[in-house]
Amino acid sequence: MNYENFNPRAFLLAQARELLTQAANAAMADGSLPQAELPAFITEIPADRKNGDVASNMAMAGARAWHKAPKMIAEAILAHLPSLQGTCWDRAEVAGPGFINLYTGADWLSTVVLAAATNPEYGRTNYGNGQKYNVEFVSANPTGPMHMGNARGGALGDCLAAVLDWAGYQVTREFYLNDAGNQIQKFGKSLAVRYLQKCLGEQGYPLPEECYQGADIMERAVAFGEAHEAQAAPLVEACRALSGDALYESEAFAQLKEALVNFALPINIANMEKDLGKYRISYDTWFKESTLHASGAVQAVVDKLLASGACYKAEDGAVMYRSAQYAAKYGTVNKKKTDDGSEEEAKDEVLVRGNGIPTYFAADIAYHYNKLAVRGFDKAIDIWGADHHGHVARMKGAMDAIGLNGEQLDVVLMQLVNLMKDGQPVRMSKRSGKAISLTDLLDMVPIDSARFLFNEQQAGSAMDFDLDLAIKQDNDNPVYYVQYAHARICSILKKLESEGVVYGGEESWHGQYTFAEPAELELIRMLEAFPAEIVLSAQKYDPARINHYVTALAAAFHKFYNTCRLLGEQPATLQARLALCLGVKAVIYNVLTMFKITVPEKM
What is the 3-state secondary structure (H, E, C) of 422-458? Predict the structure, then answer.
């Protein structure tokens, strides 16, 4: 059997559907059931496998069409089942008011073990059929260091991209660089004021409240001076006699801002790339917002929206977007305060200001239009902070307004993360006295722990990240627990090899041993579920499912090891259990490598 892209549960469901369809058609052909159109029916994997390996409601779904009691229909269908010999099925039964339960045979268990033990990429499926998915995550503002929220968003986005890839999608990881617009103007102003403070003293050049206040701004200004003091000297002199608006509106200040941004921004971007690389995140695309403006893409989108009637020009020349009209089908947009303090739905929004400068929203629409229309992605998935929830309906509606389909844009909203130590929140770095940055975190916590623990909960759940747990090297730490299961299997294999026992392949046990011990069956059912869990994680955009799955798999393996012997058993038993160990080892390896976590062979 070819185990490439093999999904055991999908296989069982498809086989059960085909079997029941054949039986129902045969029952209608000989008159046991009246002629009718086959009903829409369900085949599913029961939570309790005592109720069958696959259960179906076919008989109950067909009661109206066949004009019989469901139990009679079920019995007629079972009476017309084709021979089960040579199939994965052992028997079928009618249960309750008419459920049809199908049970797999012993050979099915062996099939699952062989699939996991012999296919190096067991778990990978072609469910996504090669559709092009773009996953954009982190996309932190390049004007300062990344923070704890970016640590969570980085793990979630990277793990989601990995799950989608294993589910058969063609995935592009993307970082959107906001290197244009108001934040860059503010960045430049902050740098220029700090540089003037350095050169001329702080007293005459206070840093405005709207500027970035972090110590990193002064660090960049000092570094700029060390590299370009002579070239910047004439600009500083031109600024010496100016203050307030006269300073900020001067040509010399504008040139100083530009020089500082051109110096500092590449440094910040390089640091981001380095820190994310340390976190084992690499992107296929770093997309610069500035390219949208330079290419005319932002203006083209605005023109397209004007032509369609989704926008109009206000009296002051601003271009206004009919946000609420297009967002309505996707939910509400951000609300705004009225004069009496109550809230009302935000109405029309500015895309281009009266001075001709586009808003960030206009660039955002152009960016997503580029993803879906220009680059042709089937789906754009964004990881956003939960504080952007009101922007979701707005952006999806904008895709409709511009002639695309808002359903092609999916947004995963991520709740805040609290850093905890000794049961108390940690907000500041002892080293720098500033808020904890991604760099601080990666200096404190093993990267394996950070990546695993930040992917432990669904994005929509608020999270407490426990520093004490993250640095533990015992079974309380789930990543250590999973890694230990892999190392334990490696140790078992090495010990057996020292005793002269190696795995002899399928022929050494298949057909000679029947898995029957409860711990074996539990472990095999978990192996059977792995590809289906990958697909479910991809469907729900929830890679945390795989964390929970692999932790439960590790627990099931430890239980198996403590109850089922290897050495001292009959050769076929030993070889079958060796195959089971190899299957578990392969699945743990696949999960950890998929999530870019190290896979130790000894601990």
Answer: CCEECCECCCCCCECEHHHHHHHCCHHHHHHHCCCCC
